[in-house]
């Protein structure tokens, strides 16, 4: 069952009912100011950092759900309704929510009032704009009241939800004309405030939540709105909100337009006040003056659309498959951008208070993003590398505001350093910008500790080399990519975090997945070093890729089962082999070791991918392991804490399915690759939105597996490495457009049904119009009319505009 439909021309998903199984959200803001916005106008805003600069409050886990947001109430006589249906739940005569690229539009009809709300964050300004157009479609004159309401958060979202002995005393606002300023803690060390403004003189306001709602009411029935008169309350201790009341008189057919704005301002220390206790509003007033003019609002929205036109123009395809095009041209790239910006910090599953920017997450998110804004990718690489330690290990996360490693989450995830190698190689292959390797980058952000980024890469690889276990395979440490495979924790205390509990590491437990990573990224580094004429480094790393490859072939492959083993535990016992009673096969090493071409001559990769499909495939993709663990095993850790079929214990973990798709392409299994691709790609499973539950336009982290009672139910939508890796699978695997050090490699792995494919790609500032004529003929490529040997378009042979024709 569906709850809406795709509108590809406008690049929107149109939600036709507010009763979606979960709130279906969108993200506004592509620079510093961000908002989450659900299809019923729930959500919250923050500046740069969802934990430390939270502007509006959100109650996760609330009942009923999703009633924190920016809410607009219309009172028409006895009827009170919301433009987005919640929180009042007054049935609407018409409802539509159109989630587009960084904007959302809501349309509601009730009592012959026709309302359209457009929400977005302008490209260059730190504010969310809500433009409201109301038309009176009745035959009578109407006197109605419109209220806009937001609830402020006290900036630190963790303190906001904890420290009530203080919080209930500190709220401060200033009301100036038709703007409400939230200035809690501005009197002391904060140099920032928020404001909520409406473009027309208001007829009343409230800033005290209890007064506005009434003692026992919720946002579904604010007393001030029920009574029809605001209290003009001025909060000065607890629960700051901002509410504007506007009384509107509308003639039949008349349309009125209002602009609400939630803004965020930072002032210099010496410019904080204009007089004692009175905040400096200059910057806010400039913003207000700008967007009080509706023409500027429309212009800013047009700029935003143009911004997206330009970004997406870097990669556009036409394949004859509508759903594939939709993922490729719109939604997969959009999700890559959002995931890149947010890492795993703020979604409807991530509160924004726990996890900052992940090390491995950012490195992987970059893979699906670097073709859009390489400059931002460059910046992120330097930020991430700066939280590495001198021995090559890394913090696991950092806070975006401070850019410092997060000690609470700790370190010791032995895959982390290698992702940096992967990310930097991908950046250079995309941009050709080798100068990044000469950047001086500190360790743990310590001044004076700087070494070149190139050295950081070498140190990363050395970290694996210096941490090999009994089989000569990489030690797993706290965990590898699979955060929940905790082979050294042995945790028996309830509530302990598997991520930070003392690690009882005896340097025995080994990861075959990390072995695959080392061989794959080690080989990429070797090419890089050769390019730079660093022969010693290249020989040295090449030597070790061979050693680890040999050890993997010897000890990392289950020759009875016909696939790669997952790991060795702290007792040196196999995990993920046919000899294990449970967890007999894991997906991760199958994809990565095949991509690393480990045991290629013996055909290990082919066997591994075939057997993965045999044991792991369900309707929605390949499960992460099979069969799931039926009880808690302290020697395996968190993985066995989940009920069978969920999360790392046997769901389809969307993140690693594309590894297998790519591996299938590596093995030239085009039909199987495309089949696997389609099983979890959002656009292809839109029809089961009632089962799937999360948004049908983005990937979720997981889809419950066969062993789950909720088979097919997805969780943790939006912020997941599934986005970037699926984009890599789509663009580099199936379509085969592969950035390489010396140019663009074109090696499509198309299913039979894709006969004519065109791809427009912007690569190193040059345009490529690639058309593939797919008939099964031997591969032949022409660049601007001339035949090219092999499949590489060497950068120096390309013009500003290139026509590439491929027969295959
Ligand atoms: C796990 C969580 C874990 C997190 C850490 C998730 O996939 O299921 O329990 O805390 O990863 O990054
Ligand atoms: C989610 C984390 O963000 C990611 O880093 C990890 O690889 C997966 N969980 C798998 O455990």
Descriptive report:
The structure is a single chain. 27% of the residues lie in helices and 26% in strands. It is built from 19 helices and 46 strands. Strands 1-2-9-10-11-12-19-16-15-14 form a ten-stranded antiparallel β-sheet, with helices on one face. A hairpin with a 2-residue loop joins β33 (617-618) and β34 (621-622). It starts with a strand and ends with a strand. 1-deoxynojirimycin is lined by residues 344, 358, 360-361, 481-484, 648.
Poorly predicted ranges: none
Structural class: alpha+beta
Q: Which whole number gives the mean pLDDT?
A: 97
Radius of gyration: 28 Å
**Number of helices, counting only DSSP H or I runs of 4 residues or more:** 19
Query: Looking at the structure, what is the overall shape?
Result: globular
Question: Short summary of the structure?
Answer:
The chain has 808 residues and is an alpha+beta fold.
Write the layout of secondary structure elements.
Elements: E1 4-7, E2 12-15, E3 25-28, E4 33-38, E5 45-47, E6 54-56, E7 71-76, E8 79-82, E9 94-99, E10 103-110, E11 113-120, E12 127-136, E13 142-155, H1 157-160, H2 164-167, E14 173-176, E15 179-182, E16 192-198, E17 205-208, H3 209-213, H4 223-227, E18 240-250, E19 255-266, E20 273-275, E21 278-279, H5 282-292, H6 294-312, E22 315-318, H7 322-342, E23 357-358, H8 359-365, H9 374-385, E24 397-398, H10 416-431, E25 440-441, E26 451-452, H11 453-465, E27 510-511, H12 512-531, H13 535-555, E28 557-558, E29 563-564, E30 567-568, E31 574-575, E32 585-586, H14 588-595, H15 604-616, E33 617-618, E34 621-622, E35 625-626, E36 652-653, H16 657-666, H17 670-680, H18 689-692, E37 700-703, E38 714-717, H19 722-734, E39 737-740, E40 743-746, E41 756-763, E42 766-773, E43 780-783, E44 786-788, E45 792-794, E46 801-807
Parallel strand pairs: 42-46
Antiparallel strand pairs: 1-2, 2-9, 3-4, 4-5, 6-13, 7-8, 7-13, 9-10, 10-11, 11-12, 12-19, 13-18, 14-15, 15-16, 16-19, 17-18, 20-21, 22-41, 23-24, 25-26, 27-30, 28-29, 30-31, 32-35, 33-34, 36-37, 37-38, 39-40, 40-45, 41-42, 43-44, 43-46
Helix pairs in contact: 7-19, 8-10, 9-10, 10-11, 10-12, 12-13, 12-14, 14-15, 14-16, 16-17, 16-19, 17-19
Bound molecules: beta-D-glucopyranose and 1-deoxynojirimycin (NOJ).
